[in-house]
Amino acid sequence: MVHLALHGRPYGKGVGVERDRGGKVHARSPAMKLGNAAFELAELRTAQERDAGISRARAAVNARGRTFCVDCDEPISAARREAMPSADRCLACQTRKERQRGRRG
Fold first, then answer.
1. pTM score, whole prediction
2. Would you place residue 26 in the very low, low, confident or very high pLDDT band (cuts 50, 70, 90)?
3. Rounded to whole angstroms, how far apart are CA atoms 73 and 92?
4. Which backbone phi and psi does 18 adopt, to 5 degrees?
5. 19 SS3 class
6. CB under 8 Å, gap of 24 or more: what pairs does 91-95 form?
7. Residue 73 near residue 80, CB atoms below 8 Å
8. Residue range 34-89, pLDDT digits in tens
């Protein structure tokens, strides 16, 4: 008997799966093979989306920030740009923005 589960219920040889001599489980029906392919495609797509999100986050962190604040047009301090190279706002404007976001949250 094959010890796999489908929706919390174990199933065995009678429902379309079998083991080869090496113990690997195989689908017997074309519909089951198609279902497995769809599942694998969904897993691949999820992995691609995760990797793309990680790449975007890395690019944002490594991006070159601005010299002047996007909100007040004052210079962003060298210390802030060194600590956060991707900074678009001066410390005062960033703090204000984060506080406003916290009130809505």
1. 0.41
2. low
3. 12
4. -150, 160
5. strand
6. 93/69
7. no
8. 777 888 888 999 999 999 999 988 887 777 778 999 999 999 999 998 898 888 99
